[in-house]
Amino acid sequence: MDKGSEKILITGSTGLVGARLLPRLADAGFACHALIREGKQAPANVPFTAGDLLNPQTLIEAVKGASAIIHLAAVFRTADTDMIWKSNLEATQNLIEATKKYAPTARFILASTAHVYNVNNPHPGREDDLLNPELAYPASKLAAEHALRTSGLNWSVLRFPFVYGDSDGHIAMLPEHVLGKWHPAARMSIIHHRDIANAIKMALAGKMDGQVVNISDECPMSVYELLQLVGVRMESSSEPLTNPWHLQVDSSLARSLGFQAEVRTVYQAVRENLL
Question: Over the chain, what is the mean pLDDT?
Answer without folding.
Answer: 96
